[in-house]
Amino acid sequence: MTSTLILLAAAVATYALRTVLITVVPAHRLPAALRRGLGHLAPAALAALVATAVVGRGGLPVLFVPGPVHAALVALAVAALVAWRTRNPALPVLAAVAVLLCWEVLP
């Protein structure tokens, strides 16, 4: 019960903070340097999520352990190549999903 209340309080606090920041401080009133940085916020957040998913709970040593090639690393490499070549935010995700599907379906 306590953990549910803590999660609920965190959700309410997060929602309130986002709502207040969006309504009280509109983007056009922010300093120019901060506005330029907002364009990098979404790719940075996505990179953090991907890095967390790839490395997992084992930490960085997981990436350097010799053994079979990890499907996630191959999908990440393909997604990085597609992102670099196309500059489209949706195509790298589709490419990574396609690699993972092929990895699972093909023997």
Automatic annotation (TrEMBL):
Tell me the domain of life: Bacteria
The keyword Membrane is annotated on this UniProt entry:
yes
**Could you list the residue ranges that cross the membrane?**
37-55, 62-84, 90-106
Q: Name one Pfam family in it.
A: AzlD
Print the keywords alphabetically: Membrane, Transmembrane, Transmembrane helix
What protein is this chain from?
Branched-subunit amino acid transport protein AzlD
Please name the source species: Actinomycetospora cinnamomea
The beginning of the lineage is: Bacteria, Bacillati, Actinomycetota, Actinomycetes, Pseudonocardiales
